[in-house]
């Protein structure tokens, strides 16, 4: 919708012009009015109307004098001049000012409609021409700035274009920034154009550098000396852009360079930081000196300091024992591994998903009665994919594992020692040691040994052997082979299994199986 302003010293004329047409129907809305040329001059400069309907003769300043002053200032609006006089000199003066819409009072509606419609067409045509010219100039300017970055332009050509586009090189220091649009607007071309236009307006107004398109981003070539003295403008930029066009943006600053010919290094550095934005956190502005050293294997799996099996086993033990500190320690170790070794977002999320799935599956295998509540959740896997930073993903996964711990803890005995005995009863087939269990449950090993003996009447090793042999008897009766039973009950050496089984049962596992 275009803006129209009405300027006439007669109140009834102004009111009549408001009502004589359905202005919206003809593409306009009335943005203001004035009773003389001097007030009109001020209002036009403030409100920037597209069309001004103005009377010729008014007190203080007449309409033609007002138009003349606006023409001197290059104010780009159309005029329709009104007059109660048919004197040719007024029409001649209007024509000299480039105005061809002249209406005699009293105003007839059909004549006004014709003049307003023609004015609308002229205004829209000028807007389209200007828009196309701006796009063409912007596109060409972008190409020159891209050529500067990629060092594909010679000095003589650069000097020529610098003069044409008003580039004020050389500067003492240079820096590239890349602006990425986030979220649902990521691939919208119209949104990118809007973001670029608004950034360009802010950067140009403050004379901080030049804005251009580059690949999928909006680029900014900063005069670093001016940027450093106007950092508040940079810090406010994401919030300003969100307010102006509703886009969420991330600004990534490349390294500082002293020569224009070295600006490619700053661009490469900014590109690397963009690849690491998931690790560096959900900040609106990213500036860092860490280089991108991705050591993920060709298969996309991370070469962690600890194996996936070790991480899952440690998490499993912490969750099954109700040890929140162990969960946090293990997850903090994983976080640090990813933070400092430069893995990309997809690889990190795949590995977190693998850790989650393997841990839950191991818990279900030991707690089959909890399968319905513990099975791998597709919702959790979807949430892992949605996280926008490593920190956010880290916090979320600790929350999920602690939530699982709390669910399992509802089924555990309240008494601390009985809880430990319950743990031993579930994990008899693992490599259990008194010292390891004591550390897991925050006990001194000697003290825990005494507590187990008081509650069971047996030393720890004897109590564990008893459970394992009882389970071995069960498995042999179910038809398992002797070597399978040894493996299922935590005996790594089959000869040792034979020895222990015979000690407690009185016959060898083979003889027992034969009798059964």
TrEMBL record:
May play the central regulatory role in sporulation. It may be an element of the effector pathway responsible for the activation of sporulation genes in response to nutritional stress. Spo0A may act in concert with spo0H (a sigma factor) to control the expression of some genes that are critical to the sporulation process. One of its GO terms (molecular function) is sequence-specific DNA binding. One of its GO terms (biological process) is phosphorelay signal transduction system. Residues 418-515 form the HTH araC/xylS-type domain. Residues 3-120 form the Response regulatory domain. This is Stage 0 sporulation protein A homolog. SMART domains: HTH_ARAC, REC. Its main location: cytoplasm. It comes from Ruminiclostridium papyrosolvens DSM 2782. SUPFAM superfamilies: CheY-like (SSF52172), Homeodomain-like (SSF46689).
């Amino acid at each position: 919708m275009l803006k129209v302003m009405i300027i006439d010293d007669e109140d009834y004329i102004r009111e009549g012009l408001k009502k004589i047409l359905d202005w919206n129907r003809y593409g306009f809305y009335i943005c203001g009015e004035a009773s003389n040329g001097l007030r009109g001059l001020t209002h036009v400069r403030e409100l920037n109307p597209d069309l001004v309907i103005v009377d010729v003769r008014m007190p203080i300043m007449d309409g033609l004098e007002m138009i003349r002053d606006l023409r001197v200032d290059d104010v780009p609006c159309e005029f329709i001049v009104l007059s109660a006089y048919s004197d040719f000199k007024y029409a001649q003066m209007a024509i000299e000012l480039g105005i061809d819409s002249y209406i005699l009072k009293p105003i007839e509606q059909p004549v006004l409609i014709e003049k307003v419609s023609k004015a609308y067409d002229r205004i829209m045509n000028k807007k389209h021409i200007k828009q196309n010219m701006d796009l063409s100039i912007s596109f060409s300017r972008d190409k020159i700035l891209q050529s500067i970055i990629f060092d594909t332009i010679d000095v003589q050509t650069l000097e020529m274009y610098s003069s044409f586009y008003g580039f004020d090189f050389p500067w003492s220091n240079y820096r590239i920034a890349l602006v990425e649009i986030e979220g649902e607007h990521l691939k919208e071309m119209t949104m990118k154009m809007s973001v670029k236009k608004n950034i360009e307006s802010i950067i140009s107004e403050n004379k901080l550098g030049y804005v251009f398109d580059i690949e999928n981003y909006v680029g900014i070539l900063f005069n670093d000396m001016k940027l450093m003295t106007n950092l508040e403008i940079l810090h406010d930029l994401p919030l300003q852009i969100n307010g102006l066009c509703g886009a969420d943006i991330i600004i990534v600053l490349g390294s500082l360079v002293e020569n224009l010919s070295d600006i490619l290094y700053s661009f490469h550095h900014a590109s690397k930081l963009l690849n690491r934005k998931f690790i560096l956190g959900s900040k609106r502005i990213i500036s860092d000196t860490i280089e991108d050293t991705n050591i993920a294997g060709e298969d996309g799996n991370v070469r962690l300091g600890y194996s996936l099996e070790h991480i899952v086993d440690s998490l499993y033990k912490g969750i099954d024992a109700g040890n929140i500190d162990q969960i946090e320690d293990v997850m903090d170790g994983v976080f640090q591994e990813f933070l400092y070794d430069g893995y990309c977002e997809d690889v990190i999320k795949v590995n977190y998903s693998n850790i989650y799935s393997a841990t839950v599956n191991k818990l279900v295998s030991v707690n089959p009665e909890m399968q319905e509540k513990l099975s791998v959740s597709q919702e959790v896997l979807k949430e892992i994919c949605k996280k926008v930073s490593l920190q956010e993903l880290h916090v979320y996964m600790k929350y999920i594992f602690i939530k699982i711990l709390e669910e399992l803890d509802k089924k555990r005995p309240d008494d601390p020692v009985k809880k430990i005995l319950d743990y031993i009863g579930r994990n008899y087939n693992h490599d259990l040691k008194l010292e390891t269990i004591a550390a897991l449950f925050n006990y001194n090993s000697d003290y825990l040994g005494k507590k187990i003996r008081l509650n069971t009447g047996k030393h720890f090793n004897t109590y564990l052997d008893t459970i394992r042999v009882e389970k071995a008897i069960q498995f042999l009766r179910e038809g398992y082979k002797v070597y399978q039973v040894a493996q299922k009950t935590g005996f790594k050496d089959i000869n040792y299994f034979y020895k222990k089984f015979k000690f407690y049962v009185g016959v060898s596992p083979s003889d027992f199986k034969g009798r059964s």
